[in-house]
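can u do me a favor
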């Protein structure tokens, strides 16, 4: 496997009590869900991305009051050319992990009769409808992909949520693995509303794969952000070009 990025000047992850980590998870995840439910009534297609960015802004302000930075959760400067060059193969491995875990679930579920692999969930078509051949809609979704999906989801569900969950379950055997699984299930759950059961299981599997790589890469978010953005870009571009992939 590709070696994890050595970090010589990374900010150390702060030591958190279970209580504080749990409260932070409840408050900020609760705010994200609550604000999305409100935004759904006004702008359903973009409610998730908008409220996730708002949640991250509030979370950033909160962390600053406590002297904490995103660098402690993986969004940090990568020292040296060797470490920077490693980001590309690490991102490639993450892309393989995303595609492999996603396809394994989709086609595995099809084999078990849980869903039809070639039939797209209705909610997905409703949300991304109108992108085919429409450059304005395509560019709008590209903005969403790289701000909310690539950066936003990796910062929140990997950087923030995983570090907090690991503090919450600290002391339990296999605490890191448990945190990765729990974060993956939550990540899948927030996609359930428009992707259904198939989307929930698929995204959960992808979340577990990315969470595992997050710790394998010594909590370096950059390869995951790059991989997430590229995979979603390929998917949106295929929709824009109306390609059957």
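np, heres the sequence
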């Amino acid at each position: 496997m590709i070696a994890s990025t050595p970090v010589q000047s990374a900010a150390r992850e702060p030591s958190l009590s279970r209580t504080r980590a749990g409260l932070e998870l409840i408050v900020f995840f609760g705010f994200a869900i609550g604000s999305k439910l409100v935004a759904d009534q006004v702008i359903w297609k973009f409610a998730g991305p908008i409220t996730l960015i708002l949640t991250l802004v509030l979370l950033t302000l909160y962390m600053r009051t406590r002297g904490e930075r995103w660098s402690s959760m993986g969004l940090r400067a990568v020292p040296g050319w060797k470490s920077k060059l490693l980001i590309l193969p690490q991102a490639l491995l993450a892309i393989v992990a995303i595609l492999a875990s996603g396809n394994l679930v989709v086609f595995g579920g099809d084999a078990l009769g849980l869903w039809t692999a070639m039939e797209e969930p209705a909610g997905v078509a409703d949300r991304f409808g109108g992108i085919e051949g429409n450059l304005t809609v395509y560019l709008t979704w590209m903005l969403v992909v790289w701000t909310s999906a690539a950066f936003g989801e990796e910062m929140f569900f990997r950087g923030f949520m995983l570090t907090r969950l690991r503090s919450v379950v600290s002391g339990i055997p296999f605490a890191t693995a448990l945190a990765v699984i729990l974060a993956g299930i939550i990540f899948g759950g927030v996609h359930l509303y428009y992707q259904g059961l198939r989307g929930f299981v698929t995204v959960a599997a992808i979340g577990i794969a990315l969470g595992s790589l997050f710790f394998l890469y010594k909590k370096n978010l950059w390869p995951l952000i790059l991989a997430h953005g590229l995979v979603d870009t390929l998917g949106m571009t295929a929709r824009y070009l109306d390609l059957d992939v």
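Confidence is low (pLDDT under 50) at residues 1-11. hope that helps!!
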